[in-house]
Amino acid sequence: MHPRILKSACIVLASAALAFLSTGCKVVPVKLTCNASAPSIYAGDPETVTATPESLTTKKKWDALYTWSGTGVTGNETTATVATASLDPGTYTVKAEVKEGKKGKEGTKPGETAACQSDFTVKPFDPPTISCSADPASVMSGSSSTITATASSPQNRPLTYSYSASAGSISGTGTTATLSTTGAPAGSITVTCSVADDKSHSVSATTSVTVQVPPPPPPPKSQTLCAVQFNQDTKRPTRVDNEAKACLDDVALNAQQKADATLVLVGNSAPVPAPKKHHHHPAPTAEELAAQRAINTKAYLVSDKGIDASRILVKSGASGQNQVDDYLVPAGANFDNDVPGATAVDENAVKAQPRNPVKHHHHHKAAAATQ
């Protein structure tokens, strides 16, 4: 640095005394002060350091040269910038040096060089925060729930989301995910929402979804179909006549539409008068009439309508009516619980009767009538 020449004299310190030299001069060294724009930053934040010189000469043809050093430091005259994006947390030092003097000879004389330094700190990034919620929080088994993660980074770092569940299945990579409860048992499913930033910080939060399994549906019930009447043919009170066809056509159609269902035919009878004493051919009892009507009705459905005999059960009831009540019993239904009181008919003991019409013979003339 070029000395400043005082107009009258220079004052020089020598030992403990002051001496006045009428023909001498005093060298005033240059000084340099460094200051960082921010004492602490996060990686990626801007940081500059400024060097402020003192006692530089203003003489023409003199020059001042600045040099800078430090991690990520790029200097330009009295200002340097620091590339902070890749800096790890810690303390960093930026150094500056100035040299003045004649061009090409800067800093060759005492007092023409000065240096300074400034420190700054790179702070570690704060981890993100997250909360997790489910909507709805209670679902029926097989339904879905929307999971929402609410996360933030104090320093606005980019975030990546992920999810897991203790049961069921979950999908989603953004701020929402879908929990499917298909196949999950009844109870609580724990859902974990996780978020990570680009600095390897990760945090998690949980929420729960209650899975309710609906009660099993009620068992199927026996369905009442039409009833076949037996009041027209007094000669053969157990015969399935032509008027029964419409009802039995409907019964057969129901059986064909429900291939896994069973038909139950319950024969009934009105009370029968007590047989007369010494009668050679006593009339059948009400129980016998009821059983025969059910057997004859089954025979019609098997032979005329093609229904598999194994799908038809015959029973006798006590309704007091001359009819056969027809029922369609779906798979899983319990007829005896639905229609109590009917008694199974022994099909080995009761045989089906033919449906041939009766021919009536009169004295002096004969005529055939179809009933």
Explain how this protein is built.
This protein has 371 residues and is mainly beta. The protein has 3 domains: 10-123, Immunoglobulin-like (Sandwich); 129-212, Immunoglobulin-like; 223-273 and 282-344, 2-Layer Sandwich (60s Ribosomal Protein L30, Chain: A). 9% of the residues lie in helices and 41% in strands. The protein contains 3 helices and 25 strands. It has helices at residues 245-257, 286-303, 335-338, and strands at residues 10-14, 17-21, 31-36, 40-42, 48-54, 62-69, 73-76, 79-82, 90-102, 113-123, 129-135, 138-140, 144-152, 159-165, 169-171, 176-180, 187-197, 202-212, 223-229, 262-267, 312-316, 323-329, 343-344, 361-362, 365-366. The strands form 7 sheets. The protein has a 5-stranded mixed beta sheet. Helix 2 links the parallel strand 20 (262-267) and strand 21. The longest helix is centred in the last third of the chain and has 18 residues, at 286-303. The radius of gyration is 55 Å and the shape is rod-shaped. Residues 1-24 and 361-371 have low confidence and may be disordered.
Highlighted features:
mainly beta, Immunoglobulin-like, 60s Ribosomal Protein L30, Chain: A, 3 domains, 5-stranded mixed sheet, 4-stranded antiparallel sheet, 41% strand, disordered N terminus
Chart the SSEs and their pairings:
Layout: E1 10-14, E2 17-21, E3 31-36, E4 40-42, E5 48-54, E6 62-69, E7 73-76, E8 79-82, E9 90-102, E10 113-123, E11 129-135, E12 138-140, E13 144-152, E14 159-165, E15 169-171, E16 176-180, E17 187-197, E18 202-212, E19 223-229, H1 245-257, E20 262-267, H2 286-303, E21 312-316, E22 323-329, H3 335-338, E23 343-344, E24 361-362, E25 365-366
Parallel strand pairs: 4-10, 12-18, 20-21
Antiparallel strand pairs: 1-2, 3-5, 5-8, 6-9, 7-8, 9-10, 11-13, 13-16, 14-17, 15-16, 17-18, 19-22, 20-22, 21-23, 24-25
